[in-house]
Each structure stands twice: as C-alpha cells, then as structure tokens.
Amino acid sequence: MPDTRTAYKTKSLTIRLIRRYIKPYLATIAVAVFFMLIAAGMTAAFAKLVQPVLDDVLYAKKREMLFSVASMMAGAFIIRGLATYFHTVMMSRVGEWIIGDLQKDLFSKFIDLDLSFHQEQTSSGLLSRVMNDVQMIRAAITETMTGFGKSLTTLILLIIVMFMQDWRLASAAFTALPIAVLFVLWVGKRLRRISKNIQNEMGSLTSRLSQILQGIRLVKAYGQEEYERERARINIEKVRSLMVKAVRVGNLSTPVNEIIIGLVVFGIILYGGSQVADGSITPGVLISFITAFTLAYEPMKKLAKLNNNYQMGLGAAERVFEMLDQEVVVKANGTKVPAKSAPQIRFKDVSFNYDADQTPVLNNLTFTAEAGKVTAIIGASGAGKSTLFNLILRFYDIESGSIELDGTNLTHYDLRLLRNNTALVSQDVTIFNETVLDNIAYGRNNASEDEIIRAAKMASAHEFIQKLPLGYQTILGEDGTKISGGQKQRISIARAILRNAPLLLLDEATSALDGEAELAIQRALSEFEKGRTTIVIAHRLSTVQHAHKIIVLGQGAVIEEGTHEQLLKREGAYAHMVKLLED
Hints:
Layout (H helix, E strand, L loop, with lengths): L1 H21 L3 H34 L6 H47 L2 H6 L2 H43 L1 H7 L3 H38 L1 H6 L3 H26 L2 H26 L4 H42 L20 E8 L9 E8 L4 E6 L5 H8 L7 E6 L2 E2 L5 H6 L1 E4 L10 H5 L8 H10 L3 H5 L18 H15 L3 E5 L7 H14 L4 E5 L11 E6 L2 E6 L1 H7 L2 H10 L1
Parallel strand pairs: 3-8, 3-9, 6-7, 7-8
Antiparallel strand pairs: 1-2, 1-4, 4-5, 9-10
C-alpha cells in the first residue's frame, strides 16, 4: 500500500510539473531532444566503427579503408560534441525559465495568502521554499530531461549494436539488468524521503539564523551569544547529517552496479574469448561488443543517478506544491467600488476570534465611526482594539455580525479598492531597505518629489531627513536600522498623509514620539483629518481628547462611548483611566 501511494504521488507530481511548467517550453525541448538523439547516435556509431577498425584495417590491412574509417571516427566525436553543447545550453535555458515561473508563482501565492497564514509561518521559512526548494526542482527537471533522454537513447542504441554483433552474448549480458533496476528504484525512494527532511531542516536553519541576526542587538545585550551559537550548531549538524546520509544512500548504486558490471564483463570475456578461439566470431566483433557494453555502462550509471536526483527534486516539489495549494481564506469576491468621500464605518454585533479554542476577542461588538469625524478607541491591552483595524482592512473575516462601509457589507466591496481607500499607521512600523523617498511613497508610487516632501513636512519628518547623509536619497537599512523609532514613526505618518485616503486608521501612531514631537504631529494630523474618517487607537489619553467620539472597549465589547467631556461626567471607566493618569 505505501508503495502504491508513493507511485501515485510521483505520477501526480510529475504530471503537474509537466502541465504547468514544462509544457510551455515543449518546442525548445523538442529541438534539444533532437540534438540529444544525434549525440546518442554518435556514441553508438563509435562502438560499431570499432569492428571495421580491427577487422578490416588492423587485421585485414585494407589501407584504402584507413582514411574513411578514421574520418568517420573523428566525425562521430565532433558531431557528438557539438550536439551535446547545443542540447545542454538549450535545456539549461529551459531550466532557468521553469525556475523563474515556479518562483513567480510561489511568491505571488505568498502575497495573496491571508495575514493568518503569514503569522503562522516564518519569512525565512517561506524564502527557503522560494530559493532552496525551487533550485532543487530545477536541478531535478533539467538534469532529468537532459540526461534521461540522451542516456536512454544512447543505451538503447548501444544495446542494438550489441545484439547486432552477437544476440546470444547480448542476452546473457543483460540477465543482471533487472537486479540493478530494482536496486535503483529502492535507492530513489529512500532519497525522496531524505530530500523532504533536508528541505524541512534547511527551512528551520534559515529561520533560526535569520532570527538570530535580526535580533543581534538583544542577543548581545543579554549575553546570549553562546546560547544562540549552540542552537545554530544543532540545526547545522542536523542538515549536515541528512546531507551525508543522502550522499551515502545516493552513491550505493555505484558499488552495486560496478559489481554487477564486473561479473558480466568476466562472463563476456570468457564466452566471447572462446567464440573467437573457435572462429565463430571475429576479434573485431568481440571488441566492438565489449566497447558497446562498456559505453552502455555510463548511461546506465547516469540513469541511476538521474533517478536519485529526480526523487530528491520531487521531495522539494511536494513542499512547493503544499504552499501553492494553500487556500485563501478571505475571498476577494466583491465588486462594489467604494466612494472617494469619507465613509461611515459601522460594526453590528460583530464576534471574532483568531483561534476557535480561545475566548472571543470581540463579542457582539456594535459601534459607528461617523463619516468625516474622528473616532477614538481606547481600552486595556487585549481588549480587541488592533483587531478592529485587521477586520476593517479584511485581513480576517468575522465569524458573525457585519461590518458596513456606507451601509454596505465590506465583503461586497472590491478588496483591492477597499484597501486603496485606506491609509494605515501601525504601531509596528515597517521600513524597507530603500531610500527615504521610496519609503514615504510606498502605496503611491507615482507621487512627485514635491508631494513627498510636503507630506514629510506635515509629519514633522523633513528636518531630520535633511540631516541624513544623502537627505531623501538616504537608504534607511533593513527595518530602518539607520533611524530611531520616533523617526520611523514619522516616516510612517508621512506615508499615510501622502496616500491621501478617505479612511485613516491610526494605531498608536505617536507612541514612539516625545511630548514635543507628538504635539507637533497632533496639530498636523488634526488638520489632515478634516474631510476624512479617522479611527484612532491610543493608550495616551492626550491623543484622543480631541476626538468627536471616544469608545471604551473591555473584553471585546463597548463599555461606554461619548466625547471626552461626556465621559468624564459619567464617572465610568474612562473617567477612572483619566484619574489614574493624573494621580
């Protein structure tokens, strides 16, 4: 039963690779195969030409045949060399096309998959699939297609030569072939399992090293160099052990085949030698046969190795297709186009949880963010504040209730256009290893430099940007390592201002700023918020006092709502928070 499942999976993976990634390049492959056949034919021709060289030129001393036979021998080598060059280059080109298609499909899939998927995966693990796994598939496909066609054709033609020379000798020589084939298949199955384990461990190693290097500041600050060195060593040794195992198993076929070939050659010489001594065959026939058999050994060995490589490639293909087959949970089926004006956002009895086994993050939540006004959301950590933004942007879909934009359920809107109409400033600021200009313009790539500078000035970022080594052309480093946390936040705010979207979501947008910088940005945002709907999440109550409405969340539901003055008069949860801060 396991063998049947393995065979079925091998067949389905192969068919899928052919249909999606090999079929578009069949014309190029066909030309390459033509040159493979020529190269294979020249190898067989060389084996056949050995007989006239011995029998007619060396033994019969027919001098008139010397030039023609020598020319044919040289021609066979020249033609084989040229044909080999052409089919190798063409198949390598096909291999690069295939790897490019696979990487584009895989990366495109990662971009389309939901936020929940990315939160369960590591970025380095996904990159390992795009780079390591796909490279192994490329090697398997190109080497198999190049080597299999050529080696198999060469083997068949050489077998024909052997049977032409002496069918009895040929029949006896290939009695051991089934044993070699069965052994090759067994080795291939073992390598398939090892390959998948190697790719898994390579992904873990890449993830481990990436985390250590990204957190190198914390590693050094807490003196964890030895601890991280040991963890990396364990991962590296696991990969090394599996690699050694793959080499050990993969090369088992070599000694087994050598033993089989050695025994067969022993039999050929005994039998063929006696036939020559009896005068049944000429020395040229025997030497030609031995030459053909010896030459046939090389494609037989290559076929065994190609099967090993192909099985390892299929192990990597399983991992790649596991990713390509991931389902997108948040369906972008809506077609309605959101208005360019400031929208109204309404939550109606919304319940949501990230994990079905946990307590709901939101529990029958109902509130309205009025169009063109500022709505502030406050509450203790874990109250569900940031979750609101995840749901408005449809990073996740709710379990029950509805979220409406201008009276229409969010799911009815075109997802891309919905997000294009929204600007987000998150507490976890993302800075790319690009210039300041590129970072601010992210999301509005067609913005002019004047527009970018104007947005930076509104975000109180222009002054510090000008002091950078190359000003707006300064590359900020991975995750903005060249600037401070507060400067990152101002870049993020400038990015949102430049986007000029009718819906503005601010999640702790000024948490990394000092009092003076926060006050300056609050003034700028107050001006920018006019004419758009703004929802603000904040812990600092000073940042929400100007809001038209303040909503206090607790345990995923609205505890109270109103203006700053109204909530203070009620002497409820909000007033209690204000009193704690004053004390």
